[in-house]
């Protein structure tokens, strides 16, 4: 009996609550990044260098990706909560239908705070090392990848907001 009690206690001490774990896996050291060509909703050609000076949550997504569609409202709420001179959500669509498809989707689900960004699917996936959608990268103000998550998340959760604020405070 004592043995069970000891093991139960040891397991409880070694357990880490899910809420304490970062949502995005952080790298040991920031990684250099390539940038695909990005076009914004006004037709301007951009690269990730245009966002230097602020932390960016770069989400690569498409309207045909069901998990991507499901997480977009949380990205919109995150931009509404934290977006500004120090932080920006860059939701990068790789839809072949272009901005008309994305605008219709944003309108259908009530996206109000995310700007429109698009890139060629193959170029974006190759440059950013994307193997599945959605893929989200946390990019430092210096333009280096500090964390990555493949798969959907609740981007406006307290855990994500805490992780982002920590990265912003370093920059």
UniProtKB/TrEMBL annotation:
Naturally occurring in which organism (per UniProt): Sulfitobacter delicatus
Domain Thioredoxin: 25-169
Annotated protein name in UniProt: Thiol-disulfide isomerase or thioredoxin
Keywords assigned: Cytochrome c-type biogenesis, Isomerase, Redox-active center, Signal
A GO CC term attached to the entry: cell envelope
Signal sequence coordinates: 1-20
Any single biological process term in GO: cytochrome complex assembly
Pfam families: Redoxin (PF08534)
